[in-house]
Amino acid sequence: MSDLVLPIVFPLLAAAAILLLRRGMVIWALVGVALSLAASLKLLGAVASGDSATLLLPGLPDLPLRLTAEPLTALLSVVVAAVATCVLIYSVGYMKRESGLPRFFAVMSLFVAAMQALVLAGDWVLVLAAWELIGLCSYLLIGFWFQRPEAANAASRAFLYTRSADLGLYIAIFTLMGAAGTSEIAATLNVDGDTAVAAGLLLLLAIMGKSAQIPLQDWLMRAMAGPTPVSALLHSATLVAAGAILLIRVAPLLTPEVLLAIGLVGGITTVAAGLIALAERDLKRLLAASTASQYGLMLIAVGAGVPLAALLHLLAHAAIKSGLFLAAGEFQHARGGTALERLRGVGRVRPWTFFGFALAALALVGAPPLSGFFSKDAVIAAALSAPSVAWLAPLALAGTLLTGAYLARALRLLWHEREEGENENRSVAGARWMGLGVWALVIPAVFLGLTFGPIEALLGLPGPGDHGTTAMLFGLLAAAAGLALGWLVPASRLLGPFHPWAQSGLVIAGGLSFWIGRPAMAIAYGCQRLERGLYATVLSVGRGGFFIARGCGRVERGLYAVVLGTGRASLAVAHLVRVGDERRIDGLIFALVASVRGWGDRARVLQSGWIHHSLAISAVVTAVTLIILLSASLSF
Amino acid sequence: MGRDLALLIPEIAVLLAAVSALIAEILRRPRASLALAMLGLFVATGLTIRLVGTDTTVFGGSFRIDALSIWAKLILLPATMLSLLLASAEVRGTVREGTVYSLLCLATVGALILAGAGDMMFLVLGLLLTSLATFALVAYPDDDPATEAAMKYFVFGSVAGAVMIFGLTYWFGAAGSTMIADLEGTEAIPLAVIFGLVAVIVGLGYKASLVPFHFWVPDAYEGGPLSVAAFLSVVPKVGALFALTQVFRDLPSESGGPAVIAGLAVLSMTYGYLAALVQDNVVRLLAYSSIAQSGYFLLGIVALGESSFALPSIIFFAAAYAAMNLGAFAVIAAVGRTLNDFNGLGRAQPLVGVAMVLFLLSLVGIPPLAGFVGKFLLFAAAIHAQFTWLAVVAILNSVLALAVYMRIIVPMYRQEEVPHDAASIWIDIVTLTALLATVTIGLAAQFFFVKSMA
């Protein structure tokens, strides 16, 4: 079953071709992703007819890479390829006036390949590699307009946040591999006991980073500085979705404690991110906050023990959110920005796109019979059937209500009567490509609900239990209340004193950079200082050595003087003896005076500072002394 | 005897290369000197390939021809060739140019001796040979910073070397022989073994630039020629780390050595990256980063004997590290030494920019680059050997690493551009070779490792 590699290989080849040829990138990218979609569909067909297969590829020593085709992975692979195809079609129009297109399409293709590798992976090593590659690709894409400081910063921030959280994935994987003795995902899911709890919590950390759950949500809003198709892909089928997808895949591993933690994280996020969305002043950032909120709902479903509900909502959300983003991108081109103030009334200028946007928004709110209605019902029913219903159900319903509120607010602003003279409309180049992309996603967003039945049958996962009717009732009520509130009441009044805080993204005291970045830098400077201090210590030890050496030098000079003195004295004695023999006493005095002066001169010469000079002198003096002493002893 | 010498032919070839390079320099033929050195290293690499898979010892067990020493040759000889090319671009036309090539080869001989040491005396010999040659290399520019750096390096080196020799006398006393392998059998006075171990860690730790024996590193890298810094960061370091591996393979397990090494690993990684975080000079930044990377090697050494990943991970990471670090230094050689020199590089010279990004990302450990595979294996080895906490620290440090290397990457894509002269063709060749290795080693891990390592 070597077909398994095809969904990965086609976009990869497209990326390589674009990088090497640097032209025809649109065609390469579209062909690559379309072929990937075809291969995924073929795979799904094969799996639906009962085949499932694992392919072993050579990898690290003793750790072969595995690809797995089973209903879940094949289905996700199709979703990834389908969303990516629509987004790439749209990008052809959106990026029409940009430079650096080879880079854009090459990285997008690589992104799709990495995501396909992640969903089809049957092996932790491959998951890890794909996970990191996805992070890298999103860094490159968010920072596509790296000339703009905010884009470059946003990209770095996204990369650092998600990579910090990846720590959890690394340790979880090694823990699981250590416990199960293999890196095959299916085999490691049977682990239980403390190992399972630890691994589950660590995985949750990694997922919180990628899926932008509180308190790691900050990067997602800033990432809106990137091109809009990138946001669409990121939010619906790749980076952010990777977290939820991983969670759904490891669902059998999760113990009740971990499930509770997951449910709570999701519940808190869905409400908090919903509040942020309600206060946002920018359409794309509103949609980003909404993404975090919707993934919070998925986490609630997993936490309630019904990963199927999370999967259905993931599918519906993928189509809806990418459609919303693509429509927002067209509005952006029409008005030269995404601030809600600037977009006021743009819906009347581009009615078809607005219509698509509104349909997708209603689907997300959960209006029947659109796709979101079914998936949200499943989530709420799951929350109602969970052991921790007292926590999860109110949070899920609050999330639903907020979804209605912020989307109604956005719709109202977009459809608002335009006042004279404000906000010039621009013609949009490549609008046809963009419209095609938007509607290619809105249509599934509407009708996807029809496929949920077959999908449930295909996956064979347990459904959300028998709270269907109650859930539907509560869900509809919450959605309708939310829509009404959002349409009628201004956000600042709804949020009251929380409004400014929500507008700043519910950042707690400066956010992660304050709590982690600053201390890290402080420690780094501390290290620098420590190093200087240590260096000074070493230096002073060295100075101490020099001091001792100087002392030694002094002692040596003293000895030298003694030796010299001895020599001098003996010479003088010898001289005296000889003179005393040969001359009279007055001659002796003259000679003494002359010799003293002569030695003084010679002593000056001795201090010339040359080491060989002084060594020679020492040697000569020693020799002379020896000779004199010897001769003296002989003559007596 | 004949067999022993035949097995040592690669080392002998490098030695001959060093000598002939020196003779050519005496005859005032610096180009010939470079050519002879390159030729010798190339031949030595070729002669090593046929040895792959051998596992034996020569000279009565005192020198080992095993996976470590063979892969040391296959990694370090090409690395030295790349350093030679970098050096030729940097010192061309200076007086005594050929001595640089000769000394680089000599230092490599020292590193190879370290990597295969089965005897304490070989540890000493290898350490001295690499040290003496590199002292002179750091001082080569003959200006104040270089002289000061070389002086510091010399003082640290002599003290560390002396301490190691002193400690080895205890081992000799305990084991009754200078063979490292004999330590295992000693009913030794553990105190003597511990004393010797600490001394060996000091000596090899200085050469491998582990914290707290690293003080000479930033100054020596910054003061000496850049090509020498590139060389120092790879060849002697890998040699010393492999020597440490050789020592730890034979160490009695109750010596407490792994715990000490784990502590040093934490210190080196954390301290190295933290100090790198505040550097403005790219050479100093890479110097600290290379200190941190040494710490990662120790994860494998800690796991020796406990995990089957330990040895492959050390060797693999050495190959990856050599490629990516040399590549990063080659780019610095082409671009400049301060962070400001990197402003706008990605726009002015897109290919060099991409290469640098790939080197740095590989140093961080992003798949599918070589650094990822190396670090992955090291983490796996440490966790297998029940050193999970150490792996956690190492992974946390990878996040710090990202912040460190981003400090170079981010300015590369800023608006303003700093004009750069066109770099020498040789530097481009080094960059390209290192890039190729960084990208392919990771992808081809399985193919060339499984058979030969075992």
UniProtKB/TrEMBL annotation, chain A:
Topology in membrane: Multi-pass membrane protein
Pfam families, A to Z: Proton_antipo_M, Proton_antipo_N
Record-annotated NADH:quinone oxidoreductase/Mrp antiporter transmembrane domain positions: 121-401
DNA repair keyword on record: no
PANTHER family linked to this entry: NADH-UBIQUINONE OXIDOREDUCTASE CHAIN 5 (PTHR42829:SF2)
Protein name listed in UniProt: NADH dehydrogenase (Quinone)
Transmembrane domains' residue ranges: 6-21, 28-48, 72-92, 104-122, 128-146, 167-189, 232-252, 258-279, 352-370, 390-408, 429-450, 470-489, 614-634
InterPro entries registered for this protein in UniProt: ND/Mrp_TM, NU5C-like, Proton_antipo_N
Protein's UniProt keywords contain Endoplasmic reticulum: no
Keyword field: Membrane, Transmembrane, Transmembrane helix
Superkingdom of the source species: Bacteria
Domain NADH-Ubiquinone oxidoreductase (complex I) chain 5 N-terminal: residue ranges: 63-105
Gene3D superfamilies recorded: 1.20.5.2700
Locations listed in the record: Endomembrane system; Membrane
From TrEMBL, chain B:
Membrane listed as a keyword: yes
Pfam families: Proton_antipo_M
Subunit structure: NDH-1 is composed of 14 different subunits. Subunits NuoA, H, J, K, L, M, N constitute the membrane sector of the complex.
Cleaved signal peptide residues: none
Segments traversing the membrane: 6-27, 34-53, 68-87, 99-116, 122-141, 153-173, 188-206, 226-248, 260-278, 285-304, 310-336, 348-370, 376-405, 425-449
Reactions accelerated catalytically: a quinone + NADH + 5 H(+)(in) = a quinol + NAD(+) + 4 H(+)(out)
Species assigned in the record: Alloalcanivorax venustensis ISO4
Membrane topology: Multi-pass membrane protein
Function: NDH-1 shuttles electrons from NADH, via FMN and iron-sulfur (Fe-S) centers, to quinones in the respiratory chain. The immediate electron acceptor for the enzyme in this species is believed to be ubiquinone. Couples the redox reaction to proton translocation (for every two electrons transferred, four hydrogen ions are translocated across the cytoplasmic membrane), and thus conserves the redox energy in a proton gradient.
Superkingdom as given in the UniProt entry: Bacteria
Family recorded in the similarity comment: Belongs to the complex I subunit 2 family.
Location (main, coarse): membrane
Cited InterPro entries: NADH-Q_OxRdtase_suN/2, ND/Mrp_TM
Keywords linked to the UniProt accession: Cell membrane, Membrane, NAD, Quinone, Translocase, Transmembrane, Transmembrane helix, Transport, Ubiquinone
Location of this chain's protein in the cell: Cell membrane; Endomembrane system; Membrane
Domain named NADH:quinone oxidoreductase/Mrp antiporter transmembrane: residues: 117-400
Protein name per Swiss-Prot or TrEMBL: NADH-quinone oxidoreductase subunit N
Coiled-coil parts of chain: none
Enzyme Commission number, as recorded: 7.1.1.-
